[in-house]
Design a protein that fits this description.
Elements lengths: L1 E2 L5 H5 L8 H5 L3 E6 L2 E6 L1 H8 L9 H16 L7 H30 L9 H10 L7 H11 L15 H23 L9 H12 L5 H11 L15 H41 L15 E4 L4 E5 L2 E2 L18
Antiparallel strand pairs: 1-3, 2-3, 4-5, 5-6
Helix pairs in contact: 7-8, 9-10, 10-11
Amino acid sequence: MFVSSRVGLLNSLTPNGEGIDDDLVCGEGFIKQTGPNGDYCVFDYESVSKKFGTDEEHLIPVSYWEGLERQNIARKKFGLKPLSPEEYVAFETQKQVIEVNQLNEAVAQAFDQFDANKDGVITLPELKLGMQDILRTELSEKSIEKVMNHFDTSGDGKLQRDEFVTLDKLRSKIDEVKKEEQLLVFDQFDANNDGVITLAELKLGMQAMLSTELSEVSVAKVMDHFDKSNDGLLQPDEFVTLDKFRNKLDAVAKEEQQLLRDEQGEGKKGIFGNFLRNLANQFEDTCETNFDCVRPEVCCDFGYKKMCCSSGRMAQNLQLEYATIPIPQNYD
């Protein structure tokens, strides 16, 4: 047998090494023994060889020892001493125990979140409320019962602490039930049972489910959003829950309302648009400096507008004119 060099491993994880399942702590292929320094794990070659073969080089899968090689490569980069096989086995066992403890803590925390009245069990209403508040998801009563029955191994209609699971596992089961529920809705939409949903079928199905009249344009936008293959049809894997259809339909309605408001705003702007543009043009600067003007004109700032001028007067489109010159006369 192969003794772990991490003597006292079990003592360091749990007080006095009591209440620990051998397989849970030491893992497959190991046995727990007690020595002067406490409990420790022993690698049992005999039991492992029966499972993986008699060749000592292949007592356990090669991938297991590949992990040791990766660990030692990483340790070498940081200047650390490489792990021996015994140390690696001990570390892996310790990691497994830590992971199990963390998993149990996560389950306990999730259970406490769902157990609203803190009576130590989770009822169907509590499961429904927890799914809404914690997981932000909604299911039909029938689907929630499916989730409950899946984990209720005792069959008493309640979830005990040892029957509850992590939120990830609960979410996975909810997704599975949602998929089943989704396929049932798909069959209801698929009027001719040809395995695809057309635009007409989608419109009729949504109107029936939502009890409201829908425009073909709005339904077409919903169809385009979920039609990933762009074939104008919804396949089973493109179909979504009724909630997602409703949410997208609400988004389309908001877009249409905003577009209508924009069009109305453009219409009002069109009535006064020319007047406002012409008025703005009248006050638009035509020069910034004297270099923008043709000599002898200069850039004049009149306060409300800058423009080229001559002697304070506008000098645009001037024509040559004769001017009279006064000539003084001598009457002597």
